[in-house]
Amino acid sequence: MKFWVLAALSFIQAAEVTENKILVEQPPRIMAANENATLACKYAYNGTGNEFRASLNKGTDRAVEVCSVSWNGSFHNHHSNKDFNCLVAIDSHKKEVNFSLWKLNTEQTDIYFCKIEVMFPPPYISSDKSNGTVIHVKEKICQLPVFQSATPFWALVVTLGFLAFYSVLITAVFVICWWKNKKNRILTSDYMNMTPRHPPGPKNKHYQPYAPTRIHTEYRSWEP
């Protein structure tokens, strides 16, 4: 009889320990893609608590609380550290809390721990310390803009051809204008050379350009 009493007491104590315990499961490692990361924390709890609190803590000593959320079925209260961009989503049916982080930097690469707490009704219960998740943030590499090679080849050829034709046309017009200008200067120089000049000495108002006088006597041989 005494054996059965001790066995019953042991079973009750084991059930109470299991009920008053929260187990947390989280992935061991996450690579932050484009400075963003989402950490899914799954928890197991079979107690009667109806008001919970979940938090994400940074560092092996959990000294920095990144963000937290409290809920009681309908009301959610969210808090985030000023040095982090964090958003928390809760799925009570799946017993899962998702912490979404964005705009992370390399200095925030560290180990992160999920913590689940039962706030009400008493007694207060906190989850056991899990193995944590290492969030690795890679250094962002600035890439030079790459020009797309989708530019049609023929469009480039046409453009270059048009520029070449335009250059040849401008050159031809310039050469024609230069030749005409040179020809006009030659003609003008010839006209100036044909102008009669005054004889040396004082100017004579009545000076007439020299013209040889005809000798009429040679044409008068028929006169008596």
- The count of helical stretches stands at 2
Compute the CA-based radius of gyration. Answer: 53 Å
Q: In percent, how helical is the residue content?
A: 25-40%
What would the principal axes of the Cα set say about the shape? rod-shaped
Alpha-beta classification: alpha+beta
Mean pLDDT: 78
User: Approximately how much beta-strand content do the residues carry?
Assistant: 25-35%
- Could you give the distance between the termini? 198 Å
Spans of at least 5 consecutive residues whose pLDDT stays below 50 are: 1-18
Biggest sheet, open or closed, and with what strands and sense?
7 strands, mixed
What does this 3D model show about the protein?
The chain contains 2 helices and 11 strands; from the N terminus they run H-E-E-E-E-E-E-E-E-E-E-E-H. With 224 residues, the protein is of the alpha+beta class. The strands form 2 sheets. Strands 2, 4, 5, 6, 9, 10 and 11 form a 7-stranded mixed sheet that branches. A 4-stranded antiparallel sheet has the order 1-3-8-7, with no helix packed on it. Strand 7 (85-91) and strand 8 (96-102) form a beta hairpin. The longest helix is centred in the last third of the chain and has 41 residues, at 153-193.
